[in-house]
Amino acid sequence: MQLFLGVRLNHANRLKHNMGALIEGEDWASPEGQEEMNIIVEETLTEMGQGQIFDVLGELMSKAAQRGYKIRFNIGLFIKSQITVGGILSELDPELNQDQYVMDRISDQVFKETPKRLLYTLWFPAWNSHSYPTQLSNEDVKDVQFQSWGRGLKAAGKAVWKGIRWPFEVLIP
Fold first, then answer.
1. Structural domain span for residue 52
2. In this structure, are 83 and 16 located in the same domain?
């Protein structure tokens, strides 16, 4: 989930700190390994930007494997299968956005976790607890919400600016 959010939020530090989920063994945790993880993440985000989440994760996995890291079998199989499923889904329904579909399912689950989240936040200092079925802390949920609101505000600002500029563009070509 942390890698998924790292790609979704285009958050390089989140990706760097959670690359161990992709890599078997502790080689990545050494200072040299951390430097290589930084390079892998930066290269991938520069090349792919905010592409499809599973495609970006697949690229991270490929770059790590090319540098000699052993990829965890189960997570590698999951990512590769989701890339394949995404290709099939786009052929069956070009309108379906796999990333949005997954985020909608996660949002539904987070909503179901709300009572437990409120309890943990109010009575226990567990703001960063990952003990929910989604494995997302309240901090993670907040990050996603702020990004969504930020995009909405940016779109609204562009619309307002376009409305303000329109008379001038019509009158003064």
1. 1-94
2. yes
77 and 121 inside one domain? no
Dump pLDDT digits (tens) for 92-114: 988 888 888 888 888 898 888 88
pLDDT attached to residue 165: 57
Q: What is the pLDDT of residues 21-42, one digit of tens each?
A: 888 877 777 888 888 888 889 9
Structure pTM? 0.72
Q: Which residues pair with 71 in a beta bridge?
A: 23
In this model, does residue 74 exceed pLDDT 80? yes
Looking at residue 121, its amino acid is T
171 half-sphere exposure, CB direction, 13 A CA radius: 5
Q: Quick one: 85 and 127 in the same domain?
A: no
Positive/negative CA dihedral, 65, 13, 144, 134: positive
Pair 60, 15: CB distance under 8 Å: yes
Handedness of CA 139, 16, 5, 9 (dihedral sign): positive
Is there a domain that residue 85 lies in? yes
5 and 65 fall within a common domain: yes
Q: Look at the chain and report how many structural domains it folds into.
A: 2
Average pLDDT, the chain: 81
Place of tokens 């499809």: 52
Q: What is the average per-residue pLDDT within 70-88?
A: 90
Q: Is residue 102 part of a domain?
A: no
